[in-house]
DNA sequence: AGGTGCGCCTGGAGGC
DNA sequence: TGCCTCCAGGCGCACC
């Protein structure tokens, strides 16, 4: 489940491998990911040089000298890694990029929830998938923005933090972790979160994301870094995937261990003692 | 119009 | 062993 730290870690790896390189060939081995690929996809990419690689929310943006940007989303199970130039493609290697130095980068995505699209390099602000996204949590996110956005909202804070229009880049794991560090129960209506709590929540989001970045992201199922290495933030979880285990530093035991509930069809984890 | 739930997908885990 | 069901959840969209 690539969220912001996993996408950012991927980008850092891809920059080393791809920036400044020309795409010699693009092997398309599927017609469709989450959406059909854009028309003449391979032809529009072949021969272009990768000027820079940037990120918006969970989207990877490869900016090309053709004037277009290749937008990539890893979905639930996607990864972009360097693969052997000789070996046969693996199952679920859907797109394989061959660079002008003959290195190969494969987009592998078992569940095909990923996305690829092409758009003008000037369209980052207007592309359908990008235009409504909220502030970057490690960039422009402020307490005032959160206060304004959450005001009057009845939906649970958990669901609101997953909404990319509220804040960019968070997913199920880091929302649970950030709410834990802020001491806020995931079920609380967004509009009922106080200014004092939001003043804890915003730094908690930044703290969790920075810690995950430092760990190279979270590797639970499919995610690996661009160089194939695993992230290890899953060893640092305070509450996520820790049902019935004590939360870190919690002196309470027995019934007051980490609880798992389902919100909007997704698991939330929280400590009933530390989060209210 | 805000909020909810579905569908897209596959692999792995657990039950029988 | 093998088959079945469930679960993981990002995100657009249909629906109320």
Question: How does this model look, in words?
Answer:
With 276 residues, this protein is of the alpha+beta class. It contains 6 helices and 10 strands; from the N terminus they run H-E-H-E-E-E-E-E-E-E-H-H-H-H-E-E. It has helices at residues 4-18, 41-45, 143-150, 157-162, 172-182, 195-214; strands at 23-28, 50-56, 59-64, 68-73, 79-83, 93-99, 104-108, 115-120, 259-263, 266-270. The strands form 3 sheets. Strands 1-6-7-5 form a 4-stranded antiparallel beta sheet. Helix 1 (4-18) runs parallel beside helix 6 and helix 5 (172-182) crosses helix 6 (195-214). 38% of the residues are buried. The model has no long low-confidence stretch (mean pLDDT 91). The protein binds a DNA duplex (16 and 16 nucleotides) through loops.
What features would you highlight for this structure?
single chain, 276 residues, alpha+beta, 4-stranded antiparallel β-sheet, 10 strands, 21% strand, DNA-binding
Element layout with pairings:
Layout: H1 4-18, E1 23-28, H2 41-45, E2 50-56, E3 59-64, E4 68-73, E5 79-83, E6 93-99, E7 104-108, E8 115-120, H3 143-150, H4 157-162, H5 172-182, H6 195-214, E9 259-263, E10 266-270
Antiparallel strand pairs: 1-6, 2-3, 3-4, 4-8, 5-7, 6-7, 9-10
The structure holds a DNA duplex (16 and 16 nucleotides).
